[in-house]
Design goal:
The protein is mainly α. It has seven helices and two strands. It starts with a helix and ends with a helix.
């Protein structure tokens, strides 16, 4: 493996680990009785990874983080994992795709606004479709009544907050990584190149992290 790919692997594994740990340790319940309505900053890290390496990296980070969350702290199982993958991807992947071709300050603003604008209606649809499945005691009519007064402001505030944090911290983080020699864009205006083999290796490392977290989590419950 070349030095460049090694750097990419280190950063991706580090970001995936940070996203997983943020889910594990920073979960803020928003609404009693609805455990799936929690705030965590994982999407900030996923978007930063997407800005650095493109939409494929953002999607991979979203899937890995959702899988870790499902087997550790989530109370909603597969359906919650599916909603997490969709929500993170709907936010991070379009933003990363736009920023990939317009790596400027206005481009970052447009990318984040588009990400927020897409994920909010997507999550309204997902809540309408999925919530009655993993919460069978909630009727679909009840979910419809919650869409505008509860789910809409929750998702709008959550993703607007995450977008604001990305906007503030992305440049300092990338600058620090470049100064350390860990990150090098291909050229001005282009993201760092990501190789499929690097993505698979990072996923394998995170699978090991996943097993360790599950073991520690279950050991703590026994």
């Amino acid at each position: 493996m070349t030095a460049s790919r090694t750097r990419h692997l280190v950063i991706l594994a580090m970001m995936a680990a940070m996203a997983c740990l943020s889910v594990f340790f920073i979960r803020v319940p928003v609404m009693p009785g609805a455990p799936f309505l929690t705030y965590d900053p994982k999407d900030v890290i996923i978007v930063i990874g997407g800005f650095m390496y493109g939409p494929l990296a953002a999607f991979t980070l979203a899937v890995i983080t959702a899988l870790v969350e499902m087997v550790t702290v989530s109370e909603t199982g597969f359906w919650g994992m599916l909603m997490n993958v969709v929500s993170s991807s709907a936010f991070a992947v379009p933003a990363a795709a736009i920023y990939k071709f317009r790596r400027t300050l206005p481009g970052a603003v447009i990318a984040l606004v588009v990400g927020v604008s897409l994920v909010v209606p997507v999550m309204l649809l997902m809540n309408y479709l999925i919530v009655p499945i993993f919460m069978p005691f909630v009727e679909r009519a009840d979910v419809v009544g919650m869409l505008i007064p509860i789910f809409l402001p929750f998702n709008a505030i959550k993703y607007a907050l995450n977008a604001s944090v990305v906007f503030i911290v992305y440049k300092p983080i990338v600058t620090a990584l470049m100064a350390s020699g860990l990150y090098r864009p291909l050229s001005e205006g282009k993201p760092g190149r990501i190789h499929v083999g690097v993505m698979l290796t990072a996923a394998a490392i995170l699978a090991g992290l996943l097993l360790v977290i599950v073991f520690l989590h279950r050991g703590g419950e026994s």
